[in-house]
Amino acid sequence: MKIVNYFFLVIIVFLLNACDQLETQSFKPNQEINFEKLVKFNPNKYKFKDYKKVIGNKDVTSWDGSKGKSYKNTRDWKKINVTYKGKDAELIFFQNSDNSTSISLNFKKNVKCSDHKNLIPNKYIKPENTQNYIADMYFVKMPIFQSSYDFENKRINVYCLGGLSGKNDDKTAGTGFFSISIKNKDISKKVVALKQIECTFSHYKSLNKRENYNKNYRFLYKGTQLNKLTRSSPQFFHIDETDKKLYNERYSTVGKIETFNENIIISIRRLKKNKSYKSTLLKKIKLDRRTGEIIMNKELYDPKDKFYKDKILRVEYIGECKKRTSAQKF
Fold first, then answer.
1. What is the pLDDT of residues 162-196, one digit of tens each?
2. Are 111 and 175 spatial neighbours (Cβ–Cβ below 8 Å)?
3. Which of 62, 84, 173, 187 has its CA 20 to 30 A from that of 259?
4. Cα separations (Å) of 72 from 66, 94, 95, 97, 284?
5. How are beta strands 74-84 and 141-150 bridged, if at all?
6. Predicted pLDDT at 168
7. Residue 65, CA atoms < 13 Å, CB-side half-sphere
8. How far is CA 277 from the centre of its chain?
9. Nearest CA-CA partner of 314 in 213, 200, 202, 201
């Protein structure tokens, strides 16, 4: 009799545990994901060891420790296959570098970045927290869409990075994901819309010292006096508060950021000299966000130059920038 009672007790405990897992498991493999249900996920309530409550224990793929399958700012992950609006995807449960957890819906196949934002409800896309542009790198054009939406204790991040086929479309699609995580600048960045500025240079001065000149041309040395530019076309830049970068008009980075804060932005780009052709060896930009002043230093190499010993012209341009609220004046 005792054996029978013990047997039934074991069955009851097993059924209770199974029911408990069934009721608490948030997402199941090979099923369609409902975005509103995904949004309700609260990363603050789970530790990584609780993964069964989030994605269950069936058909779960675990990270094998290889670097090629790792993700930035994460310690570990587990995932299941799902679908979203008919598209094959993976639902990944992360243990982040700070031991917090997050969940990410990653699309398996290429998605068009122009369509990516349409995959989630409009109420989660705010213009002030969205970046949507095409970075022109000369050799490739890359559509980029990223957006964030903040709740009281968590953040949604939407991201897509694509590539263009040569025409002005994104048939050569890219990768995209949605993620929900705690509010942490290293784990999930708050996206801020790009700020466009228009800069016009008004003055310049030579930075070449007298000893830089060849002997026959030292009479040209005028010191570091400021000279007025007779003509200057405006230059456009984009300030990226999200990733702390400075872009040119083509949304390409102008250089490596040395300083980026609420007062000053300094970027610098250096290139190696090729003695066969003209090149810009140095381009340093300093933006004073308080006064609007812009200072740009350049070092221009010309193999046919006869004025300077090292054939390098050093010049500093000074101007002023103003914020633009539209890409067009009218």
1. 876 555 554 556 889 999 999 887 889 999 999 99
2. yes
3. 187
4. 13, 11, 11, 9, 30
5. unpaired
6. 53
7. 0
8. 34
9. 213
Distance of CA 183 to the CA centre of its chain: 17
- CB neighbour list of residue 107: distance below 8 Å, 6 or more residues apart: 84, 87, 88, 89, 175, 176, 177
Which residue's entry shows tokens 């074991």?
A: 10
Distance between CA atoms of residues 27 and 91, nearest Å = 9
> How far apart are the C-alpha atoms of 314 and 70, rounded to whole Å?
45
Q: What is the 3-state secondary structure (H, E, C) of the chain?
A: CHHHHHHHHHHHHHHHHHHHHHHHCCCCCCCECCHHHHHCCCHHHCCHHHHHHHHCCCCCEECCCCHHHCCCCEEEEEEEEEEECCEEEEEEEEEECCCCEEEEEEECCCECHHHHHHHCCHHHCCHHHEEEEEEECCCCEEEEEEEEEECCCCEEEEEEECCCCCCCCCCCCEEEEEEEECCECCCECCCCCCEEEEEEEEEEEECCCHHHECHHHHHHCCCCCCEECCCCCCEEEEEECCCCEEECCCCCECCEEEEECCCEEEEEEECCCCCCCCEEEEEEEEEECCCCEEEEEEEEECCCCCCECCCEEEEEEEEEEEEECCCCCC
> Mind listing the pLDDT tens digit for each residue in 47-84?
999 999 999 999 999 999 898 888 988 999 999 999 99
- Spatial separation of the C-alpha atoms in residues 249 and 194, rounded to whole Å: 12
HSE, CB side, 13 Å, CA atoms: give it for residue 239. Answer: 24
Strands laid side by side in the 175-181 sheet = 61-62, 74-84, 87-96, 101-107, 175-181, 155-161, 141-150, 130-136
Lowest mean pLDDT of 86-90, 185-189, 203-207, name the range.
Answer: 185-189
